[in-house]
Amino acid sequence: MAIISILKYGEPLLLEKSLPIEKIDDEIRRFIDDMVETMYAADGIGLAAPQVRELKQIIVVDISAGEHPEELIVLINPEIKAEEGSVVSEEGCLSFPDITLEIERPRYVRVRGLSPEGKELELEAEGLLACALTHEIDHLNGILIIDRASPLKRDLIVRKIRKKIKAGEW
Ligand SMILES: [Zn+2]
Fold this sequence. Notes:
Helices cover 29% and strands 25% of the residues.
């Protein structure tokens, strides 16, 4: 397994749409292992393939951040089948280090996808897990947390990041 460097905001690849996986083979499974290792090494609770330079529809989520390995969720070609309600919560993203934003997301989601073995999975989630799943699925569509924030907040964050880039801190 290997830890992959995570792309930060500013990389054009993060704004692109990922493609569905047509064949799940050992190479894909190895890549998924690397994604999981990378997520844990970064203390994240979720990671999407485009964040590690692959425009593939794969997400990994573990809201226990590795404390309870059985909570790890790997979804290939995930799709949101239903959503209900809305909640606003403070969110971060591994592509936006040290930045958090208040974001509105559905309170409940039903998500379908494939496991690394190619088995159909359907899961229901609420609260933090619903938030993490929709956040990662957003990445597969090139949507980032600043795209979900108010225009004012978005400008503020973009300016902050530009300053950091100039100072060589991003
Ligand atoms: Zn993210």
